[in-house]
Design brief:
The complex is a heterodimer of chains A (363) and B (243).
Chain A lengths: L5 H9 L11 E6 L2 E7 L4 E5 H7 L17 H7 L7 E5 L9 E7 L4 E10 L4 E10 L6 E11 L4 E9 L4 E11 L4 E8 L5 E4 L2 E4 L5 E10 L4 E10 L5 E10 L3 E10 L4 E11 L4 E10 L4 E10 L3 H8 L5 H13 L8 H15 L3
Parallel strand pairs in A: 1-5, 4-6, 5-7, 6-8, 7-9, 8-10, 9-11, 10-12, 10-13, 11-14, 12-15, 13-15, 14-16, 15-17, 16-18, 17-19, 18-20
Antiparallel strand pairs in A: 1-2, 3-4
Helix pairs in contact in A: 4-5
Chain B lengths: L1 E10 L2 E11 L4 E5 L6 H9 L5 E9 L2 E2 L5 H7 L1 E4 L11 H7 L5 H10 L16 H15 L3 E5 L7 H14 L12 E5 L13 E6 L2 E6 L1 H11 L2 H5 L4
Parallel strand pairs in B: 3-8, 3-9, 6-7, 7-8
Antiparallel strand pairs in B: 1-2, 1-4, 4-5, 9-10
Classes of the chains: A alpha/beta (363), B alpha/beta (243).
C-alpha cells in the first residue's frame, strides 16, 4: 500500500477499500496481475488467491468454471486460457456468519489488461458480505478489466455482494458473473458506478435452484459524457417458491445507459419484479429493456420502467420551503438514488452513501 | 405585510389574472373565495413565484420589499409559506430529511412538532408517497410549523380532510396564524382559499375577497360573503361593484 500515491489511495477509498481495515474482517488486494495482500481475521472464513485455493481444497475445482461457462464469450475465453490465473476465493464454512464485510480490491495501474477469476463460496447456513472495489490509477488512461466471478450460495446461506467501480474515461470493463442459489439461500447484489468510464458491459445471472431461494439485484449508476454502461441482471426462477427483484436507478449527465433485465419464471409459485427508473439530467441516453418471461401458470412476473427529467414542480415545492434551486435539485437526486437495500450492514450503506455524495457534487 | 398592486398574470401567454389589488396587513387573515377556475390558486402561485406564472405588469411588495421578480426560495426565506393543495410525491425523499434540510431545528424539536400533528411515524416515509388526503394536509401543516413563515398562504386546507382531521387542522392553522395572541401583538398574516368556509369555524378572518374570472369582484366581511355565496351563488358577486 505504501507504494501507492495519495491520489490513488483516495480513489481506492471511494470504492470501499479501508487501508486500516477498521471495519473489515478480511482483505484481498490485487494490483494488475499481482496479489499484494490476502488476510482474513474471521474464524471460519477463508480468503485465498485462486491458485492457492485450488491446491488446498480438491473440491474447489467443482466450483471453478461451473456457474460461468468457459466459452460463454471472448472475455471468458480470454480468462480461461490464462496459464497464471489470478483472483480471489472466499470460502465461508458451514454455519459461519460474519456481519463485518470482507473487502476485495482490484486495482489497474500499469498493465493494459487486468484479468481476475473470483469464487465466492458460502456453504450451508453461512453468511458473508463482500465489498469489491475496482479502480484504476488516476494516471491510467487506457486499459481493460475482465473479471469472472462465480458465486455459490449454499442451503440457507446468505451472500451480499457489493461492487463499487471507480475507473477512468479510457477504461473498459467486462465483468462476467453468475450465481447459483440453493434452497432457502439469499443473494443480494449491489452495484455502484458513478464515475467516468469508457464502457462497462455486464449481465450477471442468478440461478435459483432450491426452494425459497431469493435474489435481489440493485444497481445505482451514473453515465457521464463518453461513458457507456451496458448493464443487466437476470434471474432464473428454477425452483418452486423462489423470488427475485431487479432494481435500477440510472442517471445520465450525457452518457449512455442500457438497463437490461430478464426474469425467467419456469416453476410454480415463483415471483419476480423488475424496476428501472432513469433520470436524464443532461441530454444522453437511458434505454431500459426489461424482459419478463413466464412458462407456466404458477409464476407471477412484473416490471415497471420510467425515464424522464426531474419534474419542475418538485423542485419548486422544495424551493417554497426555502431550498435554493441547486439544493432542491441535489435533494431530489439524492432521494432518487436512495434505493432501500435491505439487509445491508451499516458500513456498506455508509460506503454507498459516500459514493453517491461524491458523485452528487458533480451534478 | 403584503401589497399587491395592479397585478396582471399570464399563463401560456393567456392573461388569467387581471388588475389584482390586495392589501394584507400585519396580523390579518384574509379569505379568498371564488368559483372553480377563477384564478385563486394562480394568485397564490404567482405570489410564491412559481415558474409558468408570468407577471406582465404590476407589483408584489412583501415587508416593504419588491419581490415581483424574486426566486421562490428567497421569498420563502423572507417569510412566505404555502400549504399546497396537491403537493408532489417525491420518492426517496424522507419527510424528516426535508424538515432537517429546511430548518435549523434539531431532530428532537422536529420530532416533537411531528407528534403534535400525529406525523411522527411519517418522518421516515417518502414525502407524500402513498399519503392519504388527511396525511398530506398534516404533512403540509408540519412543514409550515417547522418553517415558521410570517405570511401563510393556504390553498383549500379543508379539501379531502375528514372531520377529525379538520378539527386538528383548524386548530393548528389558527395557532400558526397566532390567533391565540392578542390582535395588537399578532405578527403573522394569512391568505386562505376556501370553498366551504369550514376553516372559519376555527379562526376569525378579517377580510374576504371574491375572485371571479381573474378579477377580484368584492371585498368585505368574510362571514357575510360566505353567507351571500351560500344563499345566492357567485352570480350575486358578479353584480356587485368592484371596490
Amino acid at each position: 500500500m505504501e507504494h501507492l500515491s495519495e491520489k490513488d489511495r483516495e480513489r481506492l477509498a471511494l470504492t470501499g477499500l479501508e487501508v486500516g481495515m477498521q471495519n473489515r474482517c478480511g482483505s484481498f488486494f490485487q494490483v494488475d496481475q499481482k496479489v499484494i495482500q490476502t488476510t482474513c481475521g474471521a474464524e471460519g472464513i477463508e480468503m485465498l488467491p485462486i491458485k492457492v485455493a485450488l491446491e488446498k481444497y480438491d473440491w474447489v475445482k467443482d466450483y471453478y468454471w461451473n456457474a460461468v461457462p468457459k466459452d460463454k464469450d471472448k472475455y471468458t475465453q480470454f480468462v480461461a486460457k490464462q496459464e497464471n490465473p489470478q483472483g480471489l476465493v472466499v470460502i465461508a464454512h458451514e454455519g459461519v456468519k460474519v456481519e463485518m464485510p470482507l473487502q476485495a480490491c482490484l486495482f489497474l495501474r500499469e498493465e493494459p489488461v487486468q484479468h481476475v477469476h473470483n469464487l465466492f463460496i458460502a456453504r450451508e447456513g453461512s453468511e458473508i458480505h463482500i465489498i469489491s472495489g475496482c479502480a484504476s490509477s488516476w494516471q491510467k488512461e487506457h486499459g481493460a478489466h475482465i473479471g469472472v466471478t462465480e458465486i455459490y450460495v449454499g442451503k440457507g446461506a446468505k451472500v451480499t455482494s457489493t461492487m463499487i467501480h471507480n475507473w477512468n474515461p479510457g477504461i473498459s470493463v467486462f465483468p462476467r458473473s453468475a450465481t447459483v442459489v440453493e434452497e432457502d439461500g439469499t443473494f443480494l447484489s449491489n452495484y455502484i458506478c458513478m464515475q467516468p468510464v469508457n464502457q462497462v458491459n455486464m449481465y450477471p445471472t442468478a440461478r435459483l435452484v432450491g426452494k425459497n431461494a431469493v435474489a435481489r439485484f440493485s444497481s445505482i449508476v451514473v453515465a457521464t459524457p463518453g461513458s457507456t454502461l451496458d448493464l443487466g441482471s437476470r434471474t432464473i426462477l428454477a425452483a418452486e417458491h423462489t423470488s427475485t427483484e431487479l432494481i435500477t436507478r440510472a442517471i445520465t449527465t450525457g452518457g449512455k445507459v442500457i438497463s437490461r433485465g430478464h426474469i425467467l419464471g419456469e416453476k410454480d409459485n415463483t415471483r419476480g419484479h423488475i424496476e428501472c427508473k432513469g433520470l436524464i439530467l443532461k441530454d444522453g441516453i437511458i434505454h431500459a429493456i426489461p424482459e419478463i418471461e413466464g412458462t407456466l401458470t404458477g409464476t407471477e412476473l412484473s416490471h415497471e420502467a420510467a425515464v424522464g427529467k426531474i419534474a419542475r414542480h418538485e423542485i419548486e415545492y422544495l424551493m417554497a420551503r426555502g431550498l435554493s434551486e441547486e439544493e432542491a435539485t441535489a435533494t431530489i437526486i439524492r432521494g432518487f438514488l436512495d434505493v432501500k437495500i435491505s439487509g445491508l450492514p451499516a458500513v456498506l450503506q455508509t460506503q454507498i452513501d459516500a459514493a453517491i455524495d461524491k458523485a452528487e457534487s458533480g451534478f | 405585510m403584503l401589497d399587491i398592486s395592479d397585478l396582471h398574470v399570464s399563463v401560456d401567454d393567456t392573461e388569467v389574472l387581471h388588475d389584482i389589488n390586495l392589501h394584507v396587513g400585519q396580523g390579518e387573515t384574509h379569505i379568498l373565495m371564488g368559483p372553480n377556475g377563477s384564478g385563486k390558486s394562480t394568485l397564490l402561485k404567482a405570489i410564491m413565484g412559481f415558474g409558468g406564472y408570468t407577471i406582465t405588469s404590476g407589483s408584489i411588495i412583501f415587508k416593504g420589499q419588491n419581490i415581483t421578480g424574486m426566486p421562490i426560495h428567497e421569498r420563502a426565506r423572507l417569510g412566505i409559506g404555502m400549504m399546497f393543495q396537491h403537493p408532489p410525491a417525491i420518492s426517496g425523499l424522507k419527510l424528516g430529511k426535508l424538515l432537517t434540510a429546511t430548518s435549523h431545528m434539531g431532530e428532537e424539536a422536529i420530532e416533537a412538532l411531528a407528534q403534535s400533528v400525529n406525523m411522527e411515524h411519517f418522518l421516515s416515509r417518502d414525502i407524500n408517497v402513498g399519503f392519504s388526503g388527511g396525511e398530506i394536509k398534516r404533512s403540509e401543516v408540519l412543514q409550515l410549523k417547522v418553517q415558521q413563515p410570517d405570511f401563510l398562504m393556504l390553498d383549500e386546507p379543508e379539501s379531502g380532510v375528514d372531520l377529525e382531521n379538520m378539527n386538528l387542522m383548524g386548530k393548528e392553522i389558527a395557532s400558526l396564524l397566532e390567533k391565540d395572541v392578542h390582535i395588537v401583538n399578532r405578527r403573522r398574516s394569512g391568505l386562505i382559499i376556501t370553498h366551504t368556509g369550514y376553516i372559519l369555524d376555527y379562526l376569525e378572518a378579517d377580510q374576504g375577497h371574491v375572485l371571479i374570472n381573474g378579477q377580484i369582484r368584492c371585498h368585505g366581511n368574510p362571514r357575510e360573503i360566505l353567507r351571500v355565496v351560500k344563499e345566492k351563488g357567485y352570480g350575486e358577486c358578479l353584480r356587485c361593484k368592484q371596490m
